[in-house]
Design goal:
Length: 200
């Protein structure tokens, strides 16, 4: 793998610019992905937060859905945040009628698990392998209801009503967080993904 990989950010909807900024600061060739030909050049892909149902519909409209699904299935490293976690999940609880996902992660997520926009919150959580907690921002976030046998839980809610709920996972070349690491100055989670891409 090249020491300076090309990592795409799904750019049809969601907080694209923030992910592009973090990746660029990590000396990655970061590119927005709206068309299959842009996806073809990528060594890895970030699926940002946004609205998962809208993302799926737009991906269909722009003929990107099946190429995304195929690349992920064939081993393209991908990192989903918030709605991106839903897009990578094999199964959804409380999804919209007929809602599609790209799949790949053997998890069940609960959509809007923490409540509506007014219930958004932030706090410190421990992330597996990191020496210090990460500052996690949750906005209409999902959580993981079920882990497949090969899926590793990387972070859980430490306290409160949602204590113990899984909010970050990895399965092989795929990882996802319920929260938005791109809105914080801490780049460790993106750095973790970049290393995953380089090792693939």
């Amino acid at each position: 793998m090249t020491t300076r990989p090309t990592i795409g950010v799904f750019a049809l909807q969601g907080d694209v610019r923030e992910h592009l900024r973090v990746l660029t600061d990590l000396d990655v060739h970061a590119v927005p992905v709206r068309r299959p030909r842009e996806l073809e050049a990528c060594h890895g892909l970030v699926i940002p937060g946004g609205e998962s149902t809208t993302m799926a519909k737009l991906a269909r409209t722009f003929e990107l859905f099946e190429p995304l699904r195929d690349r992920i299935k064939s081993g393209l490293p991908a990192f989903g945040t918030c709605a991106g976690m839903i897009m990578l999940a094999d199964d959804i609880e409380d999804g919209a009628v007929g809602q599609e996902t790209l799949g790949g992660l053997d998890i069940t997520v609960r959509r809007n698990a923490f409540g509506r926009q007014v219930h958004s919150f932030e706090g410190e959580i421990d992330f597996d392998g990191f020496d210090a907690p990460v500052h996690a921002v949750f906005i209409r976030a999902p959580w993981v209801e079920r882990l497949g046998p090969d899926v590793e839980a990387l972070a859980r809610i430490p306290a409160g009503e949602a204590k113990g709920r899984i909010v970050a996972v990895r399965e092989g070349h795929l990882m996802a967080t319920s929260f938005h690491p791109e809105v914080d100055a801490d780049d460790r989670i993106h750095r973790y993904f970049v290393e995953l891409v380089k090792q693939s």
